[in-house]
Amino acid sequence: MAVTPTLRVEIQFTTGIWAHVTADVRAAPGIHVRYGINGNGPTDCVAETGECTLSLRNDAGNSGGLVGYYSPLHANVRSGWTYGIPMQVVFSHPDDVAISVSSITRSGTTATVTTASAHGRATNDYMTIAGADQADYNGTWKITVTGGSTFTFTVLVSATTPATGTMTARRAYVKHRGKVRMIDPDPGAYGPQNVQIVSYDGMRDLGETVLREVGLQTNASESVCLTAVLDALPANSQPVARSIDTGVDTYPYAFDDLQGGVQTLGVIQDIAVSSYMLIFMKGDGTFIAQARDTRALSASAYTFNNVMHGLRVPSDLANVYNLVRITISKRTISAAATEELYTMPTGASLEIPSNATITPFTDYSDPDDRQVAIGGSNVVTALVSGTHYAANSAADGSGSDLSASITASLTAWASTAKWTLTNTAAQTAYIRTLKVVGKALRRPGPQVFESKSTQSYGTRPLELELKYQSDGRVAQSYAEYLENQYRTFSNQVGELELLGNYSTDFLTQVLAREPGDVITVTEAQTGLSLIDAVIHSVELDIVAGPIVRCRWGLARAAVFQPWLAGTVGRSEAGTTTIPGF
Fold it and tell me: Which of 65, 373, 403, 514 has the highest CB neighbour number within 10 Å of its CB?
């Protein structure tokens, strides 16, 4: 007998309040969800944008009873319906029945739920609250367990307390959390009258946001660097939650290469590749950074033994490499904070009208060769008029000195500095001198580490630059590991497909598994035997029922296997167990 989950689509038309809109979702073409890391090669470390696509009813048969209810430009548009609002797709397993809620009270932004019986849930699980008279409480929330029959979640400070109504709570799984980015209504009174919706997860925000104003990281782990990156972003570009593993490596310097501003996702990719992390969003929008040793020690969550609805294994040499070159660049830093990291070019000027303020950025470059970008440290911010900045009443410098009429301050970051210059004079001033002074951080030249083997297919090279790694021992181990793992595609697995409705176990796996989880695969026809694979990506097709078809993109799980002396499969040097890093 088919196992059928419960589906909810929730949208925040009002900030902080989830509205249940599933009744307006068209059964055809259904809902498509995908997220995670595309590909399973050695450079596939960071997720791309996850998305959810679906169609909403835009005719008078929708929940509002109005034509144009989901058309942003229509007079009948639903209140709060616009671009950029949060949306999530939520499932509940039929084995997780709703339990009665005795009360919900609020203190500040914390709602406390008391259930009539033991809820059996854990902190960071999701629960769907339904039946409250106050819309503030209904919806699906991440919970903190405070007792066998109590848990809390975050609500608006304005929510009425206590809540009233016949309320229930049910365990839930959030398989997409994003922002509505595309709204495309069908035109014409005699057409299908649908609105096609696309919601993108938080990876899209990271891909669209430019990173520039972040401090130089010194002797910092990859986890510290990632935290600095996320903290430097505008609040509306930051993930809704984050979970970052403690770092494995230490980078002497990081972020000295962001001159002019760099796409945030590109910087995250550089951090991931430098330490071989996996970085992705879970379905619930949590930013995950998984260190290489976490993957090595992760236990398999489930074994698929010749029971799946589809399986793909590599069939060509696309991800096979037997010559791996790793490049790193060590930095050198000035002994004293006396080098000119920036100086205004000869003949240049910046115009500041009377009583106006400008905020120019000045990127650092090597005073010995201004064509070479560098990083900076210990930047002097105690500015001296006439030394660090100077102004004149004429653009060519032939007028009177107005430096005393300029108020200047400087905020310095790893590769750029931002000036705040205010002209208090009664006339226009022209900045003729700007200097940023500090310690120069240079890259004297790259170092290359190599590992190779002879294979019947010839030579398949792979070259990686580790932007922030400077440890040659790590670089050499990195090269040896990649060459060993990718010299052949034996025991590799690319994709597994299953129908969630097939069994209770299958549905549990479809709902519970996320990128970063490990499963074990055995399949006789392809010759796979007890292969541990890490889930890189999740793809769901949901049609009426709901029927849920799932595809997981897979990669070999362990970066290295822990050495277990005397244990078959964990102790054969050079075969099942290889040096880690």
Answer: 514
Model confidence at 12: pLDDT above 80? yes
Cβ partners under 8 Å of residue 396, min gap 6 = 347, 349
The span from the first CA to the last CA of the chain, in angstroms, equals 48
Longest dimension (CA), the chain: 90
Report the run of H or E that residue 440 belongs to, with start and end: strand 429-442
186-190: long-range pairs with CB below 8 Å, 24+: 186/58
In what helix (H) or strand (E) does residue 505 lie, and over which residues does it extend? Answer: helix 504-512
Judged against a pLDDT cut of 70, whether residue 566 lies above it is answered with: no
| pLDDT on residue 492 | 77
Contacts from 116-122 at CB under 8 Å and sequence distance 24+? Answer: 116/149, 117/149, 118/148, 118/149, 119/145, 119/148, 119/149, 119/151, 119/169, 121/145, 121/151, 121/171
Q: How do the residues of the chain divide into helix, strand and coil, expressed in percent and rounded to 5?
A: 10, 45, 45
Angle between the N-to-C axes of helices 222-231 and 264-275, in degrees from 0 to 180, rounded to the nearest 10: 170
Q: For residue 468, which of 223, 213, 204, 211 has the smallest C-alpha distance?
A: 223
Which pTM was predicted?
Answer: 0.93
- Tokens linked to 499: 């129908």
The dihedrals phi and psi of 273, each to the nearest 5 degrees, come to: -65, -35
The backbone torsions φ and ψ at residue 371, rounded to the nearest 5 degrees and listed phi first, read -85, -10
Where does the pLDDT of residue 188 fall: very low under 50, low under 70, confident under 90, or very high at 90 and above? confident
Cα Rg of the chain (Å, integer): 28
pLDDT of residue 439: 97
Residue 405 vs residues 302, 356, 429: alpha-carbon distances, Å: 71, 11, 9
In angstroms, rounded to a whole number, what is the distance separating the alpha carbons of residues 399 and 505?
82
Look-up of token digits 């809540």 = 163
- What does the pLDDT look like over 512-552, one tens digit per residue? 999 999 999 998 888 888 888 999 999 999 998 899 999 99
Structure tokens at 177: 């959390």
The whole-chain average pLDDT of the chain stands at 93
Query: What's the CA gap between 461 and 512, in Å, rounded?
Result: 38
The mean pLDDT of 120-131, rounded to a whole number, is 97
pLDDT range class, residue 1, cuts 50, 70, 90: low
Strand, helix or coil at 570?
A: coil
Please tell me whether residue 47 adopts helix, strand or coil conformation. coil
DSSP 140-177: EEE-EEEETTEEEEE--TT--SS--EEEEEEEEEEEEE
DSSP assignment letter at 563: P
Pairing verdict, β 126-132 and 429-442: unpaired
Cα dihedral: 36, 38, 44, 47 (round 10): -30
Confidence grade of residue 568 (pLDDT, cut at 50, 70, 90): low
Residues in the chain: 581
CA distances in angstroms from 357 to 400, 409, 416, 429, 433, listed in the order given: 20, 11, 19, 11, 16
Using left for φ > 0, alpha for ψ between -120 and 50, and beta otherwise, residue 120 falls in left
